[in-house]
Automatic annotation (TrEMBL):
The lineage of its organism: Bacteria, Bacillati, Actinomycetota, Actinomycetes, Kitasatosporales. It comes from the Bacteria. GO terms for cellular component: plasma membrane. It comes from Streptomyces pluripotens. Keywords: Cell membrane, Membrane, Transmembrane, Transmembrane helix. It is found in: Cell membrane. Belongs to the DoxX family. It is a multi-pass membrane protein. This is DoxX family membrane protein. Its main location: membrane. Coiled coil: none annotated. The chain crosses the membrane at residues 70-95, 107-123, 143-162.
Length: 181
């Protein structure tokens, strides 16, 4: 029988903490649990901050958080789970960036911390106290890490870029109305 070491226990705690928080946030968006607003209201909010279509954006964010978080907590498909969660958090961080770094001012600190923890787990792997380990790492191969993170980065860049264009266009449209008066 193999003894688990500090690294395995530390990764388990990091996976449970990060994955649990992400899964709960995703459940708020998807199901309205834990004081969340569910897909319809979250979709309207997503639309108001430039992510369109809103319901599709809410679903994608919710799945990235809930799905990625749950899989991280279980230590299953860790590269894909970490990349999906990191991508969702990069999208959240983009909304908070104008408010600076600190969360107390509405900044991106919290989203960045969760995203970096998720990406770190994707790179490091889940440890031996995980479903990936129990299944012989069939969903946690070394080549999967750069692939998953690369795909997540490309998709996130496209989605956030389109959102930023919509936000700029809306701001310019509002400025034109102000100057016409």
């Amino acid at each position: 029988m193999t003894c688990y070491d500090r690294r395995d226990l530390g990764l388990l705690l990091l996976r449970w903490g990060t994955g649990g928080v992400l899964a709960a946030h995703g459940a708020q968006k998807l199901l309205g649990w834990f004081g969340g607003h569910g897909l319809d209201d979250t979709g309207r909010f997503m639309e108001s901050i430039g992510y369109a279509p809103g319901r599709v954006s809410a679903t994608a964010a919710g799945l990235g958080e809930a799905g990625g978080g749950a899989l991280l907590a279980l230590g299953l498909a860790t590269p894909a789970a970490g990349a999906a969660a990191a991508g969702a958090m990069a999208g959240a961080a983009a909304v908070h960036t104008p408010n600076g770094f600190f969360a107390q001012n509405g900044g991106f600190e919290y989203a960045a911390s969760l995203g970096l923890a998720a990406a770190g787990l994707a790179v490091t792997g889940p440890g031996r106290l995980s479903l990936d380990h129990a299944l012989g790492h069939v969903l946690n191969r070394g080549w999967m890490v750069p692939l998953a993170l690369g795909v997540a980065a490309a998709v996130t860049t496209a989605v956030v870029g389109a959102r930023n264009q919509r936000v700029r266009a809306t701001a310019e449209g509002k400025q034109e109305v102000l100057f016409e008066e």
